Amino acid sequence: MIPFAKAHACGNDFLIVTEEAAAGHDPADLTRRLCDRHTGIGADGIEFFAWKNESGPGPRSGRIRLHNADGSIAEISGNGTRCVAAWMAESLGSKPGDTLEITTDAGLRVCRIDAVRNHDNFNVEVTTGMGVPRFVPHTLKLIDGVEVIGVEVSAGNPHFVVLVEKPDFNVGHRVWTGIGAEICTHRDFPNHTNVEFVRVVGDHEIEIRIFERGVGPTSSSGTGSSAAATAALALRRCISPLKVVAPGGAQTVAWDGPGTELHLTGPAALIARGEAW
Predict the structure, then answer these.
(1) DSSP assignment, residue 41?
(2) What is the mean pLDDT of residues 10-33?
(3) Which helix (H) or strand (E) holds 222?
(4) Any idea what the CATH number is for the domain that residue 8 is in?
(5) Are 77 and 221 in contact (CB under 8 A)?
């Protein structure tokens, strides 16, 4: 039996499985099986976790490796990292102001616990240092010949951000989900990319839709929110701090501009524990 915890951040849900518990299993196969929403537990991915410092001197820390629901490896998930921070905080009895260090395939992420609520379930508010984003304008051509102007953003993992005007997030006469699927696997991105469609609501607020690499349309994304905010702020259409509203809820991005670290604040909640075959 494989013990697991399940958590979500704005509806973006993950299983947390220790590397010890997963020993002897192929991570990709295990992820596909457990993340299946009909025959498994259901999740957008699995964060495989190992403690680096659970009780010794210095900051409490751990190491995570993320597999998307389709078994593919992802460098990082902002929401997944925050879900792991919630799991660590519950395990450690963390209090507001405590920091947790989590090493990802995109580097070290420091998570500050801003609030702890332990009523119906354990949930936290967390601010995560997401690193220094990199961005460059990028225009690509779709199969039907339509050119899409966007911004290529690295938030520890790859993103392509498209600014839209319509409240339905469609581009021209095409539905955003279809364009997102095509851009995700476009020849310009040999390792595939996450795709965000961004509508500016006001100086301090944007609304987004997300097509996640290895998953498809998702209710939320931490790195997607970070990438979307980077593009909106870099194009001088918005002002930090920026509220990023996705179908699953809102997160806040604070960024002082190129060359500085971006900080992402949002909730995460533990929702289940169990054992899987």
Answers:
(1) -
(2) 97
(3) helix 222-234
(4) 3.10.310.10
(5) yes
Specify whether 18 is located in the same domain as 113: yes
Domain that holds residue 77: 2-129+266-276
Given this model, what pLDDT does residue 172 score? 83
What's the number of domains the chain is made of?
2
66 CB burial (10 A radius; 0-12, 13-18, 19+): buried
> Residue 29, Cβ neighbours under 10 Å: how many?
11
CB 11 within 8 A of CB 220: yes
**Tokens standing for 182?**
């095509």
Q: What is the mean pLDDT of residues 238-267?
A: 97
Does 74 have pLDDT greater than 90?
yes
Decide if pLDDT at 237 tops 90.
Answer: no
Residues 6+ apart with CB under 8 A from 211: 176, 177, 180, 181, 183, 184, 194, 195, 196, 217, 218
- Please state, rounded to an integer, the average pLDDT across all residues of the chain: 96
Alpha-carbon separation of residue 195 from 157, 171, 211, 234 (angstroms): 11, 13, 5, 17
Cβ neighbors of 57 (< 8 A, separation 6 or more) are: none
Would you state the structure tokens that stand for residue 53, as one six-digit string?
């410092």
Does a cis peptide bond (omega within 30 degrees of 0) precede residue 241? Answer: yes
pLDDT in tens, 132-191: 999 999 999 999 998 999 999 999 999 999 999 999 999 988 999 999 999 999 999 999
Strands of the chain (E only): list them: 2-9, 12-18, 45-53, 60-68, 73-74, 99-104, 107-118, 122-129, 134-141, 147-154, 158-164, 194-202, 205-212, 216-218, 242-246, 249-254, 263-276
What's the pTM?
A: 0.95
Tell me the residue type at 10. C
The Cβ-side half-sphere exposure at 256, using a 13 Å CA radius, reads 5
